[in-house]
Amino acid sequence: MFYPLNSPLGRFGVVTHREADDECIASIPVGGLVNPLTGAPTIAPLAMLVDHTCGLANHRRRHDGEWTVSSELSLEVRPDATDVVAAAPDEPVVATARPFGERGRVGLALCELTHRDVPLAAATVRSFFIDVPDDLADFPDGPTGPPPPGSLADRMRVEVAEAGGATAVLLQRPDPVLNNLLGVVHGGVSAIGLELVASAAVNAGRAGPPLRTGSLRVNYVRQFRVGDESRYEATASHAGRSTGVAEARAIGADGRIAITARLTAYR
């Protein structure tokens, strides 16, 4: 299934290949994308693929009158993931997700990510089951196709901010295409932004080989709405010779923390 270009999934080139109760499979192009803060190749869009594929596996477990919202995302990546993707940049990364355990108020799904059948990452998503919101919008309708030309920053509508000090900051500009059906920034989009700033924070001022993302854990605290104060920011709590840890936040229009994340990176 291809998605309209005026939807978050369509803009980033997500394609769903299978959607069933026991298994959901989707893909996303990642090759050639770079972190706007560092200029280095990035695997940040994997977070969007995980949010979609595992989220879909959880969504299929909802009862009549229910909807799902992501509460937590965890991604574990092999250290040479960018090299694997760079070897065949035109090939997408594929995620295969399955539900895990019995569902309660929260559902859990697991997925494995591969590139040309090479294992790349493993991930989980927890989703809350909620009553269908009264203000749920209709799914966008429009043409489908490959993602529009431009950089990752262009697709995300983010700008590098002059933060000063050791904080890495990306400003999130308004763009309705990036919103989900609840009218807030899509969880996969925000997870990309958090990975980008966290990765930049652990590599700030670093000489020699960069630290590469090993794990990313995202907690969705409240809805992320865009306004003048909307941004992703991160600071490194540790940046050593072989490992680094960064704490990241998505700040909403009201100036409050909407999403938190922790990234661990390795040389």
TrEMBL record:
InterPro entries membership: HotDog_dom_sf, Thioestr_dom
Gene3D superfamilies: Hotdog Thioesterase
Pfam family, one: 4HBT
UniProt protein name: Uncharacterized protein
